[in-house]
Amino acid sequence: MEYGLLIGLILGGLGAWGAWTVAARRRAATERLLADGVLAEARREADALRLQGELDAREEALRQRRALEDEAEAIRRDLRDQERRLEKRGDLLDQRLDLLTRKEGELDDVRRALAERDAAIAIARREVERLEARRLEELQRVAGISAEEARRLVLDRVEEELRGEAGERILRHEARVRETCRERAIEILAVAIQRYAASHTAEITVSTVDIPNDEMKGRIIGREGRNIRTFEKATGVDVIVDDTPGVVIVTGFDSVRREIAKLALERLIQDGRIHPSRIEEIVADVQAEMDRHIQKLGRDAAHEAEVVGLHEKLLDYLGKLKFRTSYSQNVLRHSIEVAFLTGMMAEEIGLDGALGRRCGLLHDIGKAADHEMEGGHPAVGAELLRRHGEGREVAHAALGHHDDLRPDAPYTVLVAAADAISASRPGARRDTLEKYVRRLEELEALALGFPGVEQAYAIQAGREVRVMVDSRQLDDASAAALCREVAQAIQSRLTYPGEVKVTVLRETRCVEFAR
Fold first, then answer.
1. Spatial CB neighbours of 284, under 8 Å, sequence gap ≥ 6
2. What is the 3-class SS of 231-262, one letter each residue?
3. What does pTM read for this prediction?
4. d(Cα 207, Cα 256) in Å, to the nearest integer?
5. Tens-place pLDDT, residues 165-176
């Protein structure tokens, strides 16, 4: 039984091995069939890809060929166009060549005609010269004078006739030019005055300070006068405390110092503490404020007149003109008006309006420093302008705007005219005719009081006195001494603004008669 079981197991194992072998063979055959199918599919795909690649390559080759053919056709068209243009240009050049050939032929004909005409003219000229020589010989024979003498006689007669006519023409031309210049000058002045019609009122510098009561006068004077002495020393002015109720008078030749003193005294009266240390403190504060205020006034004036680039020191002097009056006319407002008038007139005649305004604004700058430097305000102003970098035209305008010298620049003449216009406006200055005449009469009477003086004339609103002396009584040395004596007498006896120029004229005339 055991053998049977063993045999059965062996047979079963053999059967299982046989079945496995059969199954394995079947799987191998199946896998072989699958591999053959995949390989066949891969071959078919490779053939398809190869065919597609060949088709794409053929299409790309066809496309490139068509592109090359199109480019070649475009090049052929360009070549045909260029060939046609060259043919047209060649035809045009041929036509021009034919035209030039014809022109050269015509030019040769003209040259030949001109040569023949020149030859004929030369022959005619020689004939004319021969006839002219024969006529001249006949004239000389008949007249009995040579050609040179006849020419001289004719020229002398023509010159004599033309001399009178030329003189008449020159006089008529001068009269016409003079009248034209006068009309043009009136037109320019009228236009400038009309364009700048500023309002004017005469000003008077007030040098009085109101006080609340008369007790304040005692406080201003102080114990044994120490307060008023300290105040006068600190400000450089004189304070007059008299019986006039309600006011204290501040006097001084410097208008800026007088204004500082006035403001400081008003501030002290408002503060109520009046003693030497407080006075010095208030005066110092007001001085600093006034310096800043003066600088601002100068800058504002320059900005209003449209003048740029002024030196800081000139701006200070310009601001000080606010506190200076000339015959009660404020000098700063006067300078601004002269600046605008000068600029307008300069533009009317084609000059630089900006330079004209600069000359006009600075023409009276010397009035702010005439007490610091020797000389009248024109000379002082010119020196200040030269010192602070201003140009020749500006300095010359300041020096010559009162006709103290012969002007050699057009801006000086314009500034002088604008200065006269500004001063002569109604209401610009307050100076009565009686005062004006009395001042001139005093100057003339003083000069006439010296021995040897024949006549004396006060001119330029009393700024100059011209004295005419008898040449038989005074020689040149005596005339020079007289000039100095008259100047010293005016300085010591009269009161006047600025300076007075004294000119002594001595003339010797000799007259004889021939009988």
1. 234
2. HHHHHCCEEECCCCCCEEEEECCCHHHHHHHH
3. 0.49
4. 11
5. 666 676 777 777
